[in-house]
Amino acid sequence: MERVKGTVCEMKSLSIVIAIVIIGGCDNPFAPALDTSPSGSGSILGDQTQIEGVFQNFKQAYAFRDSTIYGELLAPNFIFIYRDYERGADVFWGRDDDIRTTYGLFQNVQRLDLVWNTIISSNVESDSLRATILRNFNLTVTFSASDVVRVDGYANWTLERQNIGDVWKITRWRDESNF
């Protein structure tokens, strides 16, 4: 008799779920539909056809430690440059090395907090296909609760796009930080 009561309760529960699905338009409540709304409506990512959108996406890539978002920011001919003060020379590498290095950073930290500050200088060419931006930033790198590094400096970026209306890509990044 106890098993019959359990089966009746299970059937009532199943009937309720089926009724909800039928009334709700036959959508599976456990597999919601794909969100096809425009990315600008509620997306945390910026519009990369705007220069500020590149900065926003860079910040989000760091916040979420997402190398896919990060990779979308870099042009195929990307060059990263920083000054090695011990050797007294500039060091540079290309896109693949930069993505590999950044991926390693993302995997080895607990948290990255990036704050973009003032744009010190901006030179957007008249054809709007190339821009050079010098912007101040603060980056807090948390490896563990007892190992936190703060980096302050300037990102000196060159951005390019093929046509007006296309997305901007970073082609050159000179890191001018205290790290």
Q: What is the topology?
A:
Blueprint: H1 2-23, H2 51-64, H3 67-71, E1 74-84, E2 89-94, H4 95-108, E3 111-124, E4 130-144, E5 147-160, E6 169-177
Parallel strand pairs: 1-6
Antiparallel strand pairs: 1-2, 3-4, 4-5, 5-6
Number of domains: 2
Assembly classification: single chain
Give the strand order of the largest sheet, numbering strands 1, 2, ... along the chain: 2-1-6-5-4-3
Q: Give the termini distance in whole angstroms.
A: 74 Å
Please provide the count of β strands.
Answer: 6
Structural class by sheet pairing and helices: alpha+beta
CATH architecture of the largest domain: Roll
* CATH class categorisation of the largest domain: Alpha Beta
What count of helical segments does DSSP give?
A: 4
Low-confidence stretches: none
The main sheet comes to: 6 strands, mixed
Kindly report the average pLDDT value: 86
Round the Cα radius of gyration to an integer and report it: 24 Å
- What percent of residues are in strands? 35-45%
Question: What order do the helices and strands follow?
Answer: HHHEEHEEEE
Percentage of residues in helical conformation: 25-40%
Q: Which overall shape is indicated by the principal axes computed on the Cα atoms?
A: globular
CATH-assigned fold name of the largest domain: Nuclear Transport Factor 2, Chain: A
Descriptive account of the structure:
The structure is a single chain. A six-stranded mixed beta sheet has the order 2-1-6-5-4-3, covered by helices on one side. It has two domains: 1-34, no CATH class; 51-177, Nuclear Transport Factor 2, Chain: A (Roll). 31% of the residues lie in helices and 39% in strands. It has four helices and six strands, in the order H-H-H-E-E-H-E-E-E-E. The mean pLDDT is 86. It has helices at 2-23, 51-64, 67-71, 95-108; strands at 74-84, 89-94, 111-124, 130-144, 147-160, 169-177. With 179 residues, it is of the alpha+beta class. It is globular, with a radius of gyration of 24 Å.
